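Renewal narrative, Specific Aim 1. Our central claim is that a sequence can be written position by position from structural information alone. The example that follows is taken directly from our test logs and has not been curated for this report. It begins with the structure tokens describing the chain, in the order in which they were read.
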């Protein structure tokens, strides 16, 4: 598979870049890439349908939720219930909830309402990115249901309209106080401090762009090797994009312990390993988005939610926690969903060792 080959190649080129630049190995990027590779290969051996992969996902996310409750979420900066939901419970419980609903019914309305409720709850407690993913997934699922199984063109129109309405309406709802005064205040403060609304409110992309522009082909070997001149260049890029006050973003670029943060799997991988390494997260994002949009059948809503969350994670989250395993599960679900959609289009049954329908057909 191309994705697994690229994940292995990413680990290799990151190590090579570190050797060339005489910097410490970026163990997070190289390690998670290898974990992704091993997990995808393992899951692909033991699963042949989206349903089987979903069952594995339930066990995985149940474990993650229990771990978050007893040991805290994966982010050291998480505080209170907002941090617990944003970094620990939100995504695992959403996966489990959508899975249980899809087991009970194939109707669109129950899944849509579940995502709407979870997204609203998450937004109210301060997890706005989580809420956005739930709302976007719900919009795609609803559009797919309204268009019907065989109307691909109509599905595309409904999806574009739904996501457009969401992109226009959600910011107004956030600032209006619909989800609470605290969320409105935080959103207004962020918009004022980051007038460009750069990439969903993240301030790190200008630094990433500066580092990539300085060494695009072989990378830096390590994010921590980025020098002060490049940070200054990043500040100039930030200014052109509307981020006028360095005090609002510099502490996020260079943390109190001196570590540099890009807060993005995509940009971190590119900066550390160069353009070849960047192909891995880019291709993985493409797989997830296409799989999430084209998924069909009972577990299509679950695939959509997982794929969209994983794509968001690749662009806006760092290599932390169990990212490699979670992204591998999302990739497997997307690949199997695309295979089943292709089989359904061709009038075939999806491959499954345990499918009684397939056995009857063979007889």
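The sequence written for that structure reads:
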């Amino acid at each position: 598979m191309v994705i697994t080959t690229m994940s292995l190649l990413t680990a290799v080129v990151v190590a090579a870049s570190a050797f060339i630049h005489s910097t410490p190995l970026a163990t997070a990027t190289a390690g998670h890439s290898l974990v992704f590779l091993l997990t995808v290969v393992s899951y692909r051996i033991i699963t042949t349908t989206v349903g089987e992969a979903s069952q594995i996902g339930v066990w995985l996310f149940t474990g993650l939720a229990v771990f978050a409750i007893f040991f805290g979420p994966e982010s050291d900066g998480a505080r209170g219930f907002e941090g617990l939901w944003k970094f620990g419970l939100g995504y695992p419980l959403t996966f489990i909830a959508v899975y249980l609903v899809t087991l009970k019914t194939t109707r669109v309305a129950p899944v849509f309402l579940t995502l709407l409720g979870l997204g609203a709850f998450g937004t109210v407690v301060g997890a706005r990115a989580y809420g956005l993913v739930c709302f976007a997934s719900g919009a795609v699922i609803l559009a797919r249901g309204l268009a019907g199984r065989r109307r691909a063109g109509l599905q595309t129109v409904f999806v574009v309209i739904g996501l457009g309405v969401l992109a226009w309406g959600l910011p107004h709802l956030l600032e209006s106080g619909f989800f609470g005064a605290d969320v409105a205040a935080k959103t207004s403060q962020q918009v004022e401090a980051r007038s460009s609304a750069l990439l969903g409110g993240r301030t790190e992309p200008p630094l990433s762009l500066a580092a990539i522009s300085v060494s695009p082909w072989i990378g830096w070997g390590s994010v921590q090797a980025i020098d002060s001149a490049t940070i200054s260049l990043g500040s100039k890029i930030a200014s052109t994009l509307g981020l006028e006050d360095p005090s609002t973003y510099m502490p996020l670029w260079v943390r109190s312990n001196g570590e540099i943060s890009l807060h993005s799997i995509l940009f971190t991988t590119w900066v550390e390993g160069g353009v070849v390494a960047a192909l891995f997260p880019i291709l993985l994002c493409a797989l997830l988005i296409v799989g999430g949009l084209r998924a069909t059948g009972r577990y299509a809503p679950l695939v959509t939610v997982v794929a969209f969350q994983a794509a968001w994670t690749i662009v806006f989250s760092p290599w932390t926690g169990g990212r490699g395993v979670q992204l591998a599960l999302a990739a497997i679900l997307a690949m199997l969903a695309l295979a089943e959609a292709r089989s359904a289009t061709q009038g075939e049954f999806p491959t499954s060792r345990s499918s009684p329908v397939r056995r009857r057909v063979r007889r």
